[in-house]
């Protein structure tokens, strides 16, 4: 009965058979009812019906053509039978002329690191130069002092701080598919570039020059040094790279002071600071430069084709802990960018450009991200439903309570304190929105909600709608379709494409949705991307203890899903203590570039990728098929 009702509701809501099919096949309403009840403290016994639904047969996928992998706890990157994976570049490999080779002693200087591939590879995009040559632009999210320094961060010097800053940012380098069929990076290509925490950048858009962005070093409020904690990414139809600043707060300190409400909302801390940059670089000391943190937490646009170009921070896209920037063109020509803010109980945003894309004049599109409207999502649902509709709430000065009386003197203040503006307009608090991906052939959009231990424990984080589990350990993927299939429309229908869980440990909603089985289970979906055929690739950044709630899940991994049937297969497994993040394809879809970040974190026993007794190093892998075929097919 429940299933029939759900199907009918879905047809009424969406008038789209594919979308409604998933609403039905993806999730058992029964499991939701259990999860909701558990959240209210009514702990229900295991329900055999939920188990039966979990084991229900799924239609065979036409999109997925590979043999699924088992879980792994080994120190390797494993791909399916018939596939090969080779390292392309690792942290510390030289990319600029004159840069030395990586030396694992941890004694190389800041100058050496500034010419080498940065640490902790994350989001990346490929910009083709020809059929077999391309530029790869890659984020280097953060650095691990245990590995970066021989002293493991215990005796930090001024040059060490410069070295750590040089291990951050973005690396751009040329890659070539050579006669052997494999991709290699080209050291010394004139395109190669390092962008670090000290590269000069321009602040653009409505907040540029605002008093909140002015510092002693930059009274103009329009020039800033560097980008850091660059998490995921985006790419524009006009050929630029977007790098997204995430946990910028962790680099600032102001010992002995009190944080104000704005600083608190953005996670800035007076005394706790693992990077210690403020001891040697005054702009990271908030008691000296209270406005410097306002100059970070933005999306930065980079022209990868011009290594002398000045990166531009785009204040129109709002300031928060950005995950990625999923760019799409609406049919009416406006550029739409979907943006997650990765923090427990923060929000999901959308930017719509003021001007339209001009397909005939590439240069005319260069500043489309300069001006537009920012929105934030409110998800609505009937009690006990795992689908519903929603609205994009406009973050424009003078509307929706965003007035001077409520603390927003002007539009720039709304952009700078976007999180606080989102609260005023009534945005839904989410389970850590990570990557957003837009389907290439229809207008559905997915976002990973990675996990949220606070759900149900804080008043502003109720257990409902797209966040249906208290103390959510496993994460889920929410999916929406804009009204009239128009990305600029203000309303949408949503459902949950998957709810991750462990059906071998739980039999309620924590077992996961019907498309999660003991064969494909995982936790904490994070990276996300569609390929050209519409396969949905899911990369995990979760717990790898392989015990308790995570028993049978092994190391972090990569899954591939068919959005039409809901089927999910495990495509790759990572080495010890890594997360898998960063994904891009060659235009022919026959090579996949995927990042292995922080293998061996917290001194876990990884020696990836070189093996033996070597230091673990974040590495980009290239995956190809032995028969040269399309990845995943
Ligand atoms: Fe850098 Fe939210 O991951
Ligand atoms: Ca992430
Ligand atoms: Ca994550």
From TrEMBL:
SUPFAM superfamilies: Calcium-dependent phosphotriesterase. It comes from the Bacteria. Residues 450-471 are annotated as: Disordered. PROSITE patterns: TAT. This is Transcriptional initiation protein Tat. The lineage of its organism: Bacteria, Pseudomonadati, Pseudomonadota, Gammaproteobacteria, Oceanospirillales.
């Amino acid at each position: 009965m429940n299933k029939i009702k759900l199907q009918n509701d879905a047809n009424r809501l969406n008038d789209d058979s594919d979308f409604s099919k998933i609403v039905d096949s993806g999730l058992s309403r029964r499991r939701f009812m259990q999860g909701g009840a558990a959240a209210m403290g009514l702990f229900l016994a295991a329900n055999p019906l939920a188990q039966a639904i979990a084991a229900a047969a799924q239609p065979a996928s036409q999109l997925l053509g590979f043999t699924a992998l088992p879980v792994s706890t080994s120190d390797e990157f494993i791909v399916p039978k018939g596939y090969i994976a080779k390292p392309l570049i690792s942290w510390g490999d030289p990319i600029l002329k004159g840069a030395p080779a990586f030396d694992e002693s941890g004694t190389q200087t800041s100058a050496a690191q500034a010419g080498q591939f940065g640490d902790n590879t994350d989001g990346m995009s490929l910009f083709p130069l020809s059929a077999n040559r391309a530029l790869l632009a890659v984020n280097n999210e953060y650095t691990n002092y245990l590995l970066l320094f021989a002293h493991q961060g215990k005796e930090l010097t001024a040059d060490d701080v410069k070295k750590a800053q040089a291990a951050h940012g973005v690396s751009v380098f040329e890659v070539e598919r050579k006669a052997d069929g494999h991709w290699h990076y080209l050291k010394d290509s004139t395109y190669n570039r390092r962008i670090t925490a000290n590269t000069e950048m321009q602040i653009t858009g409505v907040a540029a020059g605002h008093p909140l962005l002015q510092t002693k070093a930059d009274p103009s409020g329009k020039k800033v040094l560097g980008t850091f904690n660059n998490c995921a990414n985006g790419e524009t139809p006009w050929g630029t790279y977007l790098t997204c600043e995430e946990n910028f707060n962790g680099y600032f300190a102001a010992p002995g002071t009190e944080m104000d409400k704005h600083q608190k909302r953005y996670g800035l801390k007076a005394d706790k600071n693992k990077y210690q940059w403020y001891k040697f670089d005054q702009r990271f000391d908030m008691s000296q430069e209270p406005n410097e943190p306002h100059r970070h937490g933005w999306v930065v646009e980079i022209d990868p084709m011009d290594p002398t170009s000045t990166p531009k921070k785009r204040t129109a896209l709002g300031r928060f802990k950005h995950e990625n920037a999923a760019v799409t063109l609406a049919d009416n020509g406006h550029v739409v960018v979907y943006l997650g803010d990765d923090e427990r109980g923060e929000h999901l945003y959308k930017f719509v450009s003021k001007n339209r894309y001009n397909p005939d004049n590439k240069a005319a599109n260069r500043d489309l991200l300069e001006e537009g409207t920012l929105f934030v999502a409110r998800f609505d649902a009937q009690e006990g439903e795992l689908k519903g509709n929603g609205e994009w709430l406009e973050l424009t000065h003078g509307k929706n309570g965003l007035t001077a009386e409520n603390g927003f003197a002007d539009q720039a203040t709304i952009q700078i304190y976007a999180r606080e503006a989102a609260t005023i307009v009534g945005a839904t608090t989410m389970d850590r929105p990570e990557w957003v991906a837009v389907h290439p052939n229809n207008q559905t959009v997915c976002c990973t909600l990675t996990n949220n231990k606070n759900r149900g424990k804080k008043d502003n984080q109720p257990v409902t709608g797209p966040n249906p589990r208290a103390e959510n350990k496993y994460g889920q993927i929410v999916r929406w379709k804009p009204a009239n299939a128009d990305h600029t429309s203000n309303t949408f229908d949503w459902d949950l494409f998957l709810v991750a869980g462990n059906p071998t440990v739980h039999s309620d909603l924590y077992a996961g949705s019907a498309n999660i089985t003991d064969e494909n289970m995982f936790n904490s979906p994070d990276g996300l991307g569609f390929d050209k055929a519409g396969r949905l690739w899911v990369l995990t950044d979760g717990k790898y203890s392989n015990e308790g709630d995570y028993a049978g899940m092994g190391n972090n991994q990569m899954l591939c899903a068919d959005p039409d049937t809901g089927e999910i297969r495990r495509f790759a497994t990572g080495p010890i203590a890594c997360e898998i993040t960063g994904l891009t394809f060659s235009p022919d879809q026959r090579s996949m570039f995927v990042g292995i970040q922080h293998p061996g974190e917290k001194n876990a026993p990884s020696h990836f990728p070189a093996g033996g007794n070597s230091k673990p190093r974040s590495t980009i892998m290239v995956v190809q098929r032995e028969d040269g075929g399309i990845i995943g097919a």
